[in-house]
């Protein structure tokens, strides 16, 4: 599985659910363990429960981010400005 296939990570209790384009996987990992393996230029922490792939953002709509798979994820107020900045940097690098 490539990092490009990962849409987002969702923390559910002791498990992390890895949501990919085609399927979901479960892993026993902490948020810190997940972060150590990710490129912070490609992924953003938007909520205590979510780490998203910036390449799969369709839109930022108020307090939610709309992903390619049409899922809407809540953005914590404390992460909103950082998400907007990281997303703009990501888009600029892709142009």
TrEMBL record:
Residues 1-89 form the HTH LytTR-type domain. SMART domains: LytTR (SM00850). Pfam families: LytTR. It comes from the Bacteria. One of its GO terms (molecular function) is DNA binding. This is LytTR family transcriptional regulator.
């Amino acid at each position: 599985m490539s990092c490009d296939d990962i849409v987002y990570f969702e923390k559910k209790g002791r498990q992390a659910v890895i949501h990919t384009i085609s399927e979901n996987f479960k892993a026993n990992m902490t948020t810190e363990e997940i972060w150590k393996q990710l490129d912070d230029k490609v992924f953003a922490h938007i909520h205590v429960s979510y780490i998203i792939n910036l390449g799969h953002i369709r839109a930022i709509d108020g307090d939610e981010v709309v992903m390619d798979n049409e899922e809407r994820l809540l953005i914590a107020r404390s992460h909103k400005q950082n998400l907007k900045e990281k997303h703009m940097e990501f888009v600029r690098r892709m142009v």
